[in-house]
Design brief:
alpha/beta; 8-stranded mixed beta sheet; 12% strand; 14 helices; globular; single chain
Length: 341
């Protein structure tokens, strides 16, 4: 009985942190102190191949719109291929040349088998990848669920699936950088809600078997992705590998993902105050292509509204990063992540 009361109080605390602190803080920041800015890009760019997960709707689709305008070849991984095809057809305006620049494959990040099959489909295209955007994710307001591999659903889909995908496509990123002479990029879409994980020390129990609430589950997965970015960027920088790893908070965004379980009146109101998916997508494009990030030291930093900001002590803590790195390898049964070729 006492444990249930304690867990209820912890769940209420998590909800209050998100609703009364993190949400208002970033809404105020984005509307008053640091209003939206578009990507910082040159007028002409070399052609790039960009792979994005979750590119069929929301923030991902917003980014795909810009990538196509910039003449990028785009590979989309998503659950609903037919929906993605319809969206790309709308974007192309019936232009076959645009349609030819897009490849779409099924991808369910909660299934490691699906991730492996997707990566194999991409490799069979025989193309190098200049930019990998790990964007797709889930945000559930339901009770705790697990993937088929026994991972907490958010942690498995938002984090572990993307780590495995990064590992499987590492060679294509390396070959792209060798060919172009500029850094390939891995862009990991995190969230400002990593603050909650830091307050709760959420990664001590990554599967949240002792205490669960959806806000903390989502925060854990996005914090893990942020810390993984730091570890992998450090590894590449130390080894002289020509790949940048950039993480970001896309903004407080109006998407189906964030508001799927809310009443219609709430959804309509938030349209007025949240960033649009297209605006948030531009932050992804900035991370993926902005030349100014080419030589930046990203230690302890991620992007908010296309500006580099501090990620906080919890995510910068090397012991926390090392613990997560080792636990990730064990869960995915990898001897190493992005082993050097």
């Amino acid at each position: 009985m006492l444990e249930r009361i304690v867990n209820l109080l912890k769940a209420i605390f998590c909800q209050l942190v998100v609703v009364l602190y993190i949400g208002p803080k970033y809404l105020l920041k984005e509307h008053v102190f640091d209003r939206h800015r578009g990507p910082s890009l040159p007028k002409t760019m070399d052609k790039k191949t960009v792979l994005i997960t979750g590119g069929s709707k929301g923030v991902g689709l917003g980014a795909v719109k810009v990538f196509l305008k910039l003449n990028c070849d785009v590979i989309i991984g998503c659950r609903n291929v037919s929906h993605a095809q319809r969206e790309v057809e709308k974007l192309s305006g019936g232009d076959d040349n645009v349609m030819k620049r897009v490849k779409i494959f099924p991808l369910d990040l909660s299934s490691l088998e699906s991730v492996a099959n997707f990566a194999q489909s991409v490799r069979e295209l025989g193309v190098n990848i200049d930019v990998l955007v790990n964007n797709a994710g889930i945000m559930k307001a339901s009770p705790r669920t697990e993937t088929s591999h026994g991972f907490e659903a958010h942690f498995g889909c938002n984090y572990l699936g993307h780590v495995l995908l990064t590992d499987l496509l590492y060679r294509q990123l390396l070959e792209a950088s060798d060919k172009s002479g500029v850094c390939s990029r891995i862009v990991n879409v995190s969230s400002s809600v990593h603050t909650l994980c830091a307050l709760m020390d959420g990664l001590q129990d990554v599967h949240l078997k002792e205490f669960y609430c959806p806000e903390l589950a989502y925060s854990n997965s996005k914090t893990a992705l942020l810390m993984f970015s730091q570890s992998l960027e450090h590894k590449f920088r130390t080894a002289g590998t020509n790949i940048k790893v950039i993480s970001l908070h896309p903004g407080v965004v109006y998407t189906d993902l964030a508001l799927q379980d809310h009443p219609r009146i709430v959804r309509e109101f938030t349209k007025l105050i949240f960033k649009s998916a297209d605006e948030a997508g531009e932050t992804l494009v900035h991370a993926a292509l902005a030349p100014e990030l080419e030589h930046e030291n990203l230690a302890g930093l991620y992007l908010e509204n296309s500006l580099l900001v501090d990620i906080g002590d919890y995510c910068k803590n090397e012991k926390n990063q090392t613990k997560l790195w080792n636990e990730t390898k064990n869960l995915l049964k990898l001897d190493e992540i992005c082993a050097f070729i």
